[in-house]
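Hi team, as promised in this morning's meeting, here are the two structures we talked about. I've kept the exact order from the run log so nobody has to guess. The first one is mostly here for context; it's the second one we should focus on when we meet again. Sequence first, then the predicted structure tokens.
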Amino acid sequence: MKNRASLRPSRMKARKDTSVLLIESGIVLFGARGYDGVTTRELADGARTNISSIKYHFGGKEALYRAVLEEIIQEITELVGPLLLALRNGVAEANGNRDVLTRLARQFAQNWCRVALGDPRTQKRIPPIVREVIQPSRHFTVIYNGFLRVLYDVLGELLAAANGQAAVDEELQIRTHIIMNVVWGFIYTESLLWHQMGWNGYNRNRIEAIVPVLSDAFVLSIGLGTKPASGVQGQIAGRG
């Protein structure tokens, strides 16, 4: 079986070998129907190869599923990792200055929103993560340790700095979970928003209408800021 560690984004972009095609097939199919809802035949057909290729490259369906999660987490980390690093470093350097913390929080939320809702790479890779969070498998630790735990930790550091609490405080950790749902849960429920608004998806104008509202909610949920920066700006771009 080929070494999974060799499948880096550069290879994903440079070559379309069978292992890469199987991962791409898995991203689509596992995201749409979950692990149990997809057969090895469907995974192989999606990659335009035969079933034996799954065993040859990954050892079986479950190992392919884990490889899909690892690839997704690596790509998402490359997209949002710099945002988390900037926030973490900024919080450390702010020394509790609430004006600085407010600016950092707002900037993070705005950038997160644009990446999470507007980048097609993120949109394609979110469904498998959502399914794994809602119905965790034995491979849940791939997404937790690989990304979600880091997101929790960084948001917890921001919340602790804003409220003068220790990051290990139990109440603070619960509040961090609530804040997680401001920045992450918004993605989970996008279909509800689309139905409510009469949208068939996001476009640039719609995302830019969401950005200030979401960033206000994020800042206030942390206990920073007293006055929304956005208001309701202009008219949200057309329905349909």
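And here is the second protein, the one for discussion:
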Amino acid sequence: MAVTCAVPAPPATAQQITVETVVSGLATIWAIDFAPDGRIFLTERGGRVRTVTDGRLDSEPWITIDVVEVSESGLLGLALDPDFADNGFVYVAYTYGTGDGGLQNRLVRLREDPATRRGLFDAVLLDDVHGGRGP
């Protein structure tokens, strides 16, 4: 039996790739989203949602959430609401510990306080999703 594969020819000219550091000083970035006002929202697995404004990392976290960071757990997904400019909603998923040593995941809706431009808890949307070790 013979197997034949078609391999595309390499491009006639090599593509130039430029790598640029946008911001530094972050720890284990997991998710990124872009706000309509130009800010960049990022999650650090250790529990902080950080923002970058005009190319600079804001000195204070947008919000800090109590998470359990082991293996691939911690503060994970992040998405800005399609109407973020009007409602300030941000959705995040994170892992927390249970009293018996287990891990559970939770999806919450946060909202931005217009006066401080910092995040506040708004609602738990999904909870008690098994997250790994334990019963």
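Starting points for discussion:
The helical segments are 84-87.
The first helix runs from residue 84 to 87.
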